[in-house]
């Protein structure tokens, strides 16, 4: 379902304060020689009070006064002075860069823009802060916990905001920084985008800044990147493992493959033990391949690395079948559920498709494409086992672009591994890199700065939100 509305958290997304209230309290305690120690019971009481304040049942002054008391500030006069300072500091909001630019761009694309905010302050004061940081004029509706009577991460506050906007959860996105609030939105059925996010935040998409929201796939209605149309891309190269296909464990399937390997080689060892030794040798080979960015041919793999203690003249002719079977010992592979539909639709829209894959097999991928009726849609298939170089070596990407007769700047690479796929594609001059991380893989979902892709997607179908039909 197409996204029609975008809802944002306020504090931590559009603005921060020059000094947090917690810092003010800690400084006051230090000046008075009071240790910053609060009992577990009082910590729980603070959380309960905060919930009451955020739902309008306790005012800001009463909340902070009770907090100061629990911290050991017993002088009423001192608390009163500190409360005045806290109240004044609440207005000292500073904008995060890019808020106006991001909202202006999203508004131009036709999105409904809303705020879902937890606050103990009145609605009017919240609006004052949004005006102060220059984003209020773009906001269509603000849902305030202190007015509504419940707060994040309860799904009710998200659902009420959707009701007021006349949107379904499937038509809306929540943009936030807090892990619990993002999870609350997800439980309410909304898509999620993390920005300025906490280390433990998990979301469907990640933006590295407010302006970067304009590049998030599900927010692409103008389909632009850096002033260039995504439809300017001519060829979309896609990885296979964990991108076009996934692997699942299948005990009987894997055991049968091990038996077949043992029979083919003619070993007298039990198949399980024989293949366990192959696994050890394969790890040594993999380490060499990762370090050198070289990929052995099937024949070299088996005669040099996997079975060097067997006669090369016997093993060499069997190498292709052995590789095919050895891959089966790892698990059964299936195409992603949406793979064929996405491939057909991208082709219909005028894009040429290709494959660039690190793999030890020469036969498996072409055979799969043929069996699934996809061969005709991938005229360019570059496999490291045939080319001899592996990602992230830029040469394998450049070879694919050469075979497809496309300027690398007009080529896209879609993979799953930021550390490998982003670096290699960019060194090769590719115009765009898209990463589809495996669910639950935190390292891939939050890559290092040097491995940031242009876009991150959750499934292959998201590509249809990014690439419109190419001009005739």
Largest sheet: 6 strands, parallel
The end-to-end span amounts to 27 Å
Widest sheet, order of strands: 5-4-1-6-7-8
Return the CATH class of the largest domain: Alpha Beta
Structural class: alpha/beta
The pLDDT mean sits at 90
Write down how many β-strands occur, each being a DSSP E stretch of 2 or more residues.
18
| Global shape | elongated
Q: Beta-sheet strand percentage?
A: 5-15%
The poorly predicted ranges are: 222-229
CATH topology of the largest domain: Rossmann fold
**CATH architecture annotation name of the largest domain:** 3-Layer(aba) Sandwich
Number of helices: 21
Radius of gyration from the alpha-carbon trace, in angstroms: 28 Å
Number of domains: 4
CATH H-level superfamily of the largest domain: HAD superfamily/HAD-like
Percent helix, as a range, is 40-55%
Question: What do these coordinates show?
Answer:
The protein is an alpha/beta fold. It has 4 domains: 5-14 and 96-222, 3-Layer(aba) Sandwich (Rossmann fold), CATH 3.40.50; 19-89; 228-246 and 333-466, HAD superfamily/HAD-like (Rossmann fold), CATH 3.40.50.1000; 250-330. Helix content is 44%, strand content 15%. The protein contains 21 helices and 18 strands. The strands form 5 sheets. Strands 5-4-1-6-7-8 form a 6-stranded parallel beta sheet, sandwiched between helices. Strands 15-14-11-16-17-18 form a 6-stranded parallel beta sheet, sandwiched between helices. It has a two-stranded antiparallel sheet with strand order 2-3. A hairpin with a 2-residue loop joins strand 9 (224-225) and strand 10 (228-229). The protein is elongated.
């Amino acid at each position: 379902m197409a996204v029609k509305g975008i809802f944002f958290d306020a504090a931590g997304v559009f603005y921060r304060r020059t000094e947090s209230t917690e810092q003010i309290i800690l400084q006051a305690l230090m000046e008075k020689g009071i240790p910053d120690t609060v009992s577990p019971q009082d910590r729980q009481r603070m959380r309960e009070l905060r919930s009451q304040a955020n739902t309008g049942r306790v005012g800001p002054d009463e909340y902070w006064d009770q907090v100061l008391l629990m911290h050991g500030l017993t002088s009423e006069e001192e608390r009163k002075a500190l409360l005045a300072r806290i109240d004044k500091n609440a207005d000292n909001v500073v904008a995060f860069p890019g808020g106006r630019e991001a909202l202006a761009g999203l508004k131009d694309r036709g999105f409904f823009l809303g705020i879902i905010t937890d606050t103990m302050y009145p609605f009017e004061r919240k609006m004052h802060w949004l005006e102060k940081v220059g984003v209020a004029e773009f906001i269509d509706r603000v849902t305030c916990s202190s007015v509504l009577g419940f707060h994040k991460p309860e799904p009710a506050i998200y659902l009420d905001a959707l009701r007021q906007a006349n949107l379904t959860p499937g038509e809306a996105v929540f943009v936030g920084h807090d892990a619990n609030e993002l999870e609350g939105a997800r439980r309410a059925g909304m898509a999620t985008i993390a920005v300025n996010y906490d280390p433990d935040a998990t979301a469907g998409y990640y933006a590295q800044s407010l302006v970067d929201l304009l590049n998030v796939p599900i927010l692409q209605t103008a389909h632009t990147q850096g002033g260039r149309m995504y439809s300017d891309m001519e060829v979309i190269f896609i990885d296979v493992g964990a991108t076009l296909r996934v692997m699942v464990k299948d005990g009987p399937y894997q055991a049968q493959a091990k038996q077949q390997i043992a029979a083919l080689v003619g070993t007298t060892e039990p198949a399980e033990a024989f293949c366990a030794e192959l696994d050890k040798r394969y790890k040594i080979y993999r380490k060499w391949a990762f370090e050198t960015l070289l990929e052995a041919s099937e024949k070299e793999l088996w005669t040099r690395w996997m079975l060097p203690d067997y006669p090369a003249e016997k093993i060499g002719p069997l190498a292709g079948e052995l590789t095919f079977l050895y891959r089966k010992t790892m698990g059964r592979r299936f195409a992603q559920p949406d793979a064929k539909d996405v491939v057909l639709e991208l082709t219909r829209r005028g894009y040429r498709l290709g494959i660039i894959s690190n793999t030890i097999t020469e036969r498996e991928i072409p055979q799969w494409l043929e069996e699934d009726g996809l061969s005709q849609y991938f005229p360019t298939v570059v496999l490291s086992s045939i080319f001899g170089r592996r990602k992230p070596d830029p040469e394998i990407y450049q070879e694919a672009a050469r075979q497809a007769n496309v300027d690398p700047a007009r080529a896209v690479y879609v993979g799953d591994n930021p550390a490998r796929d982003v670096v290699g594609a960019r060194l090769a001059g590719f115009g765009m890199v898209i990463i589809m991380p495996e669910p639950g893989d935190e390292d891939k979902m939050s890559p290092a700065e040097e491995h940031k892709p242009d876009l991150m997607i959750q499934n292959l179908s998201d590509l249809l939100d990014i690439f419109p039909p190419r001009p005739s």
